[in-house]
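User: Predict the complex with adenosine-5'-triphosphate.
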Amino acid sequence: MGIGEAAITQLLKPTLLKLGGSAITIKQRPLTPDKDAITRLAKEIKESDISSLILVHGGGSFGHPLAKQYRLNEGYKDSSQIMGVSRTHQAMTILSRLVVDSLIDNKIPAIVVPPSSCIITKSGRIESFEKNPLIRMLELGFMPVLHGDTVFDWDVGFAILSGDQLVSSLAMKLNAERIIMGADVDGLYTADPKIDLSARRVPYLTPTKLKILRRRVRKSTVMDVTGGMLGKMEELIPAVERGIPVIIVNAAKPNNICRALKGEEVVGTLIERA
Ligand code: ATP
Ligand code: IP8
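Assistant: Here is the predicted structure with adenosine-5'-triphosphate placed in the model:
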C-alpha cells in the first residue's frame, strides 16, 4: 500500500458552495474584505462537518473594480490591459488567501486552485478544464478552493470567468450532489430587494419558471433585474437541468451556511428540475 492510501476515501458526490463577493467583501469599498464574515463562514463550514466540499468564491470588491477599470470583459483590445489582467488575478489571489487562511485556522485542509492555471475559455465559456487534481484532492480529504478569475481565452485573449459559471461547470463535470449559493440576500426575488420594497422572495423555482419570471420582471417594472441575481441564476440552469439542485441562501446571516451544508432547512430559494 502506498503512502496515504489508507486515508483515501471513496469519492462522494461533492457539494459545491459558492460564497458570493457580496458575502465576503465590502462591495462598495475596493479591495476591502469582510474579515468578520470570512472568519465566521470558515467556522460554519468546519461546524457543518461536511466531507467532499468544493468552495468557490466570487470577486466582490477585489475582482470587479479592477476588471471594470481595465475593461477585461471585452477581451484583449490593447496592451494597456495586460497589467490589468495581472492586477485583477493578483487581487483574487489575495482574497483567496484570506479565505484559505481562515479555513486552515479552523483545521480544514483547504488548497487554492487558481482557475487561470487549469481552465481555458473560448469566447468566455469554459472549453477545457483539468479536473483530475480536484478529484484526487477530494479523495484524499482536501477542500479545493477556486474563485472567479481572469482566464486565458482562445478567441479573445483573456476573459473574466465568473464563480457562477465555474460552479455550474464543476458541478456538472464532477456529478455534484447539490450547489449552495451564499449571497447577501435571502434568495431570489421578483426584483432587487435592496431597491424595490415590493420585491417578493421566490421560495421554489424550476428552470421553466425561472424563464417565465425573467420575462415577467423585464416587462413589468422600472427595475432592471435582467442582470444581477436573476441573470446569474441562468448560469446555473444547465446544472439544474442535469438534476443538480441549487439552493440560494443568505450567507450574511449567521448559521445559514452551516445549516444549508448540513442539509437543514434554511430560508432561501430552491431551484430544481421539475
Ligand atoms: P460576486 O459577483 O462579487 O461574487 P455575488 O455573487 O455575491 O457577488 P452580486 O452580483 O452582488 O452577487 O448579486 C447579489 C445582489 O444582487 C444582491 O445583493 C441584490 O441586491 C442584487 N439583486 C438584483 N436582483 C436581484 C433579485 N432578483 N433577487 C435577489 N437579489 C437581487
Ligand atoms: O464575482 C468575478 O467572479 P464573480 C471574478 O463570481 C473577477 O462574478 C475577477 C471579477
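The chain has ten helices and twelve strands.
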